[in-house]
Amino acid sequence: MSGSQPALTFKILAECGVSKARTSLMALPHHVVETPVFMPVGTKATLKGLLPDQLEAMDCQIMLGNTYHLGTNPGPELLTKAGGLHKFIGWNRALLTDSGGFQMVSLLKFAEILEEGVTFESPYNGSKMLLTPEESIKIQNAIGADIIMQLDDVVSVLTTGPRVEEAMNRTVRWVDRCLEAHGRPEEQSIFPIVQGGLDENLRRDCVKQLTQRKVNGFAVGGLSGGEAKDDFWRVVNLCSGLLPRDKPRYCMGVGFAADLVVCVALGIDMFDCVFPTRTARFGCGLVETGQINLKQKKYALDFRPIQEDCECSTCKRYTRAYLHSIVTVETVACHLVSVHNVFYQLRLMRDMRESIKIQQFPQFVRKFMKNMFVDSEVPKWIREALSAVNISLT
Amino acid sequence: MKFSVRTVGAAKLRSGTLTDFKRLPELVLETPLLLLYTKGGSVPHITHEVLQLITTDNQAVQQTLPSTFLIHEAVKEFKKGLPKFVGLPEYMTYLSVQDPALKTPQGFNTKNDVSVWTHSGRVSLDADRYMDMVEAFQPDMYEALSNGDTNEETTKKKIGKVIDSTRDFYEDCLQRHSTSSILKNVSLLAVLEGGFDLEARKKVGQTYSDAPVDGFVINGLHNNGGDVEKIDFEKIRDLIEASIEPLPENKLRVLHGCWTPLNVLNLVEMGIDVFDASYPYLATERMCALTFDFEAVEWGTEVEKGVESATEISLNDAKYREDFTPFLSGCSCLACTKHTKAYVYHLINNRELLASTLIMIHNTHHYLEFFKAIRQAISQGKKLALKMR
Ligand SMILES: [Zn+2]
Ligand SMILES: [Zn+2]
Asked: Where does the chain bind Zn(2+) (chain B) (predicted)?
């Protein structure tokens, strides 16, 4: 990459005249990404059986890799020798990596957060290990993703009391250590993570401190951990309102269709979630009304595609009845449902971008919610969240 | 279906074309032909989208009874046939009684019933039930029901019983076939049994020589599965010859099994027209990439008695951890042009599904190229030989 081109430029193309939704171009070293964007998660250097060619064919623009997994296996040394993760997996478009901290705390026993970093027991030989903010960045520099995440102090969103404040302040201290340790600022952008649990004042304080740093974008962290939806949307709305307009905002771990639509309305630009590919492994296909479990007997003679108007390569050729007959038996079933589910998410994002461009986003939201909740009431939290940004569903 | 075939030169080598399929009138297939292997209707690990990345040429697929038996009710209800049900309507579809990649357990067939093993266990069916399924599936080509439960160990007495029951199945199938409006213009193949009994094979060949079918399946040499790779070819050469000898020239000859590349070349020289792709599939299942090399040589070229070059490499070998080269240098498949041994080694070690997909892409490509080279060598008046190291 030439030194003159910044690692990230963000250009807003259109803003919804009603809500906080916007559509933008985020130029990264490997690809110009259209936002709002959904990033499928390729945990261990692969997106559940899909080829990079297939992802490109459905216009997937950016994918997420997990630093904890990649740092352990194949490891930063091998990835450096391979010329980075892009080359290793044969993916030429954009990549984002997380810091590894969240997965450590959630996957490993005895993970403990100290000022120095996250200490944990090696799952391989039981020895005491330490992941510092510097070490996380060093690994992410070796992986070489376009956007990398700071190591943050992760506490459960359900935690209350002084620990939340401690985590918020430590996250701010750690972002400075991450920026200091960053070896490739011209090719990779570090996003700091807004913490502060469900406490409005802490969130405000965190945003205030983080926005004083020289960074290209921000993430809203510490959500999607079992909090009430009512709390979830209020925190997202608060943060997106405080974060600068001219930089991308990434809400971590959000991937259910209705949540995506609400968060876009609240002004979020980037999302990631393992849900679409994970649910595909169990034979569940995403549809307008949620998801259908293709294992169920009622699909044995259902000769419709997973979703009738879907243009993915699976729906154009395969029926629910056929998928029912091979689901959880043949790997092809998992590939076919994954293709549909990823396509579904990408199409949802594309439809939202298009509607924002032509000032039809509120109409899009109303239609979407009507289809999604065809048999039930639209949940109260969705109605409230949308009305907070002036979209009424009636 | 129309089969035009000519015998080339002094050997029994043949080259031909399959055309005029009722369902696929534009389709032209050349023999010696490879049938793509399927499980549950699809090429294992390969969706149609990915199959198109391997080859856009006309291809044929083999559907097997063990892996389609359980969907038969759904296909019947669907009404548009198996090729469309499984998402491969553009592919010539061949239906076989057994699965060449799956070892068929012995001793379960009776005079009136044949057993096949689905993913949820054994089922048995008689000729009528089988023909009901064929009518629902509407393949382009199918085998008469057959017993086939013979191998090197089988006694003459048992061989005789297998021949008789297969003959009965054939007659029942032919009866249904000739009166079925659905199966009009669908090709029926007769199945030739005889185990390892040379005299019996000659006799069977003669009795079927004027059968009103489009071709013949030489059966009963093995019980399918990976063991077929280990068969000593010299033990079966005469048996295959005995089966072929009485057959009319203008009819298709099929021989199933995961034969080694060298044995495929032997069988081509003996005049076999149709093979299956269980071999590249079984290599994939053991995480091996096919690497055997071949070249067209003049007839009469004394094939060097060298060490046969390795036919495959195991990608689950730690020596590939940092090997950023393709499975096979010079290979033009998607896996070799875009990915490396190191990446696939990583995928295997993380039990990621993409490992099997990438290996299957390469193996299918390589095996299709092998068959292309076989046909090309024949058309140039040469023969294909494996390169020795
Ligand atoms: Zn679809
Ligand atoms: Zn290859």
From this structure: 331, 333, 336, 362
Q: How far is CA A210 from CA A62, A193, A234, B49, in A?
A: 25, 8, 20, 45
Measured on CA atoms in the order A131, A134, A137, A142, is the torsion positive or negative?
Answer: negative
Closest CA to B200 of B214, B185, B221, B215: B221
Whether B19 and B58 have beta carbons less than 8 Å apart is answered as: no
Residue A262: closest CA among A363, A178, A385, A362: A385
Chain B interface, Cβ < 8 Å to A: 39-50, 53, 70-71, 73-74, 77-78, 85-87, 119, 321-322, 324, 334, 338-340, 342-343, 346-347, 349-350, 352-354, 356-358
Phi, psi angle pair for B95, to nearest 5°: -105, 125
Among B36, B39, B47, B80, the residue to mutate for chain A (most A Cβ within 10 A)? B47
Q: Which of A81, A83, A89, A82 is nearest to A64 (CA)?
A: A89
Question: What's the pLDDT tens digit per position in B20-29?
Answer: 999 999 999 9
Distance separating alpha carbons of residues A260 and A269, to the nearest angstrom: 10
User: Which chain A residues touch B354 with a CB distance below 8 Å?
Assistant: 46, 48-51
Sequence letter at residue A259: D
Chain B residues closer than 8 Å to A78 by CB:
321-322, 342
Show the domains of chain A with their CATH numbers.
9-275 (3.20.20.105), 280-388 (no CATH)
Query: Counting ligands in written order, which one lies closest to the CA of residue B341?
Result: 2
pLDDT tens readout for residues A367-380:
999 999 999 999 99
A/B interface, count of CB pairs below 8 Å: 121
Summarised one tens digit per residue, pLDDT across range B6-59 is: 988 767 889 999 999 999 999 999 999 999 999 999 999 999 999 999 999 999
What interhelical angle do A133-143 and A162-181 show, nearest 10?
50
Structural domain boundaries in chain B = 2-285
How many Å apart are CA A63 and CA B344, to the nearest integer? 19
Contact B338 A313 (CB under 8 A): no
